[in-house]
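Memo to structure team: turn this sequence into structure tokens by end of day. - J.P.
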Amino acid sequence: MNEVLALLLAAVSGGLLGLLFFGGLWWTLQRALVSSNPALWFGTSAVLRIGLTVAGFVVISAGQWLRMLACLFGFWLARWLMRRLTAARMGLNTSPLVTDQAETLSSTSPVPSKRTPL
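Reply from structure team:
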């Protein structure tokens, strides 16, 4: 029972790390788009977010692969949640059944293709 509790705690901690990582990415994008020096925002944010996330994974896993896997699952779940929340905020459809809009646009483009026939 103690190991199940540790795995559950690792998954929740991974979710918190994911919210920190992807929430930080969202916040960085909002700030960098209106900044006069966006490269500084992106570079600093990437180093901080990756460093905190890797350090969190190392501490949470404590050298046990099952805890690392649970933490990774929580991280993935946070990614899924942030993707849904940000897409809903922007009015985008994130259904996997919808075809890729870029592919649809490129097939109906009036610009001729640069491909040469064989």
